[in-house]
Write a structure and sequence with these properties.
By secondary structure, this protein is an alpha/beta fold. The protein contains 12 helices and 12 strands. The longest helix is centred in the first third of the chain and has 18 residues. It is globular and about 65 Å long.
Length: 342
Amino acid sequence: MSLCKTRSIAFFLFCAFLWSLGSIPASGQSEHSARLIEGAKNEGRLVWYTAMGASDANLLVEVFKKKYPFVVNVDLFRGTAEKTLNRILIETRAGRWEFDLAAMVEIDILVHHRLLSPYVSPETKAYLQEFKDRDGHWTGIFVNYYVLGYNTNLVSEKEAPKRWEDLLDPKWKGNISIDQEEYPWYATLLAAWGRERTERYLEALARQNIRWHKGHTLIAQLMAAGEFPVAIVYAHRIEEMKKKGAPVDWTNTLNPIVASVSGIGLSSKPNHPNTAKLFIDFVLSREGQAMIRSFNRIPARSDVEPLAPKLDQTKLRLKAVPPDIGTRYNEYVQEFRRIFGL
């Protein structure tokens, strides 16, 4: 091996070593990232509260720590959305700001209580406006699409309902299943259609003898088993079931397709702000979003290949659940249950 080539290899290894320590910017690494890395080295810790599934959250943490080994400790609190919100509210009311960042569907409640600080990651430019807070308090990490699913053994693609209004056809009477707590779907139709049109539609739908169940996964499984032909389901769950051979499919022509966004945001008083921002950048990056996709979730980032071609954001008429769902939740619950006589 020539001396020139040996020196080139040695120089490359030396640069790689320095980059791993964050001492020099790697190719493509911005000054923004370099500053966060330097700050995170002095912190070495992160506290993340989330409603994400435990196994998924732990995998993200594991990859993040391998990427940034100077982050020695990541304290993860994972619970249901209700438990996570309650913990944050109880702690902050007592003057304790334990969490550095939070991730959940109901993240706008934290914005309402001024518990999140605006942070616009450089990665947010790759996200639809529908999937991020207009004031920069949070950005989506994954999305659930509320769609109409159908059992392909009972309903052909031609016969399947293509619009929400198609559910009013007499042939679907007694043959539609809906989650008995479909409040985000209702709130989003109000935002998209207005109160008069929405209430007129739902009052007609209520006369279709809806078959109520609790839980979108259960509803999808019952539909696949032939208990009923049509239901409101999550699109990613149907795609997952299709891959396993279940006789199910979903309609992508709805207007709107309701999108429930799980967002991530920075605490108003983070103890480890640089590490928290670094983690947000990681989760929002293409690498982080590819991991989200590997969890059979719909990544919120627009330039990451979807789980299936039908899930392509550019081909769907998406409408995010309105941000006031948390602060007006009881109002939406009462109206929904009144209309359907629940």
